[in-house]
Each structure stands twice: as structure tokens, then as C-alpha cells.
Amino acid sequence: MRYKAMFVAGFAVGFVAGARSGRETYDKMVAYAQQVAEHPKVQQARSAAQAKATEFAKTAKEKGPDYAKNAASSAASMAQTQAGQMPKYLANVKQAASSRMPARFAGSADTDDVAPDGNLVYPADGSAETSAHYTPDMP
Length: 139
Hints:
139 residues, mainly alpha, two-stranded antiparallel sheet, 2 strands
């Protein structure tokens, strides 16, 4: 029923906006809309909807502070849990970073990625490759 009413209302609006029927057709549609709005069943449905909306608003107003308090306490407990685990996370990150950092930068990595002559050492082949002679068309 709701979809039919919306379709009829949309059709009427479209007709008013797009038709060139003149003022008398518009007046007829307005008069019909007023008749429908004044019908007892429509009035009854409107008052029932209004009462239900008022009831929902009162319920929301009463329950709102409780939901806000619950959300705040939940967020606080979650933050405490996460804050308690933060030193452990930081220690893991520090250990992981220092194990990958070369020894000359205060890391604990056994192999240095730079050869004594300043060229990079690639871990895959262990060879020092010079980048001074690199050109873009090299493979």
C-alpha cells in the first residue's frame, strides 16, 4: 500500500511539473489531495504514526545516556588493555628493526649490506656490485 501511495504521489508531482494542462487540472489535483488528506482513515493512520514516532523518541531519549555510558566504559577498558600491551609491541618492533639494521647503525645484524669499498652487497649472491657504473640501459 505504501508503494502505491508513493507511486501516485510521484505521478501527481510529475504530472504537475511536466504537464501543460493548465491551472484547472492543477486545482483538481490539489482538491483531490485535500480530500484524501481529510479522509478519516488517513487521519487515523497519520495520528497512529505520529504517536508511534513520539513513543520511539521518548524511548530513545531514555536509553540514550545508558548506551553512551556503556560505550564510554567499553572504550576505556579497551584502551587500557591496548595500553597495557603497548610496551610488548614496542619491544617486538625494536627487536625486529635492530635485527635488520646494519651494525654500524647500532643494529645487531651480523652481515653488513655495504662492502668495505662502499659498494652494496646483495644478500642473494653475497657479491659486491658497484653502482658507480650503472646506466639506465643496463639489464
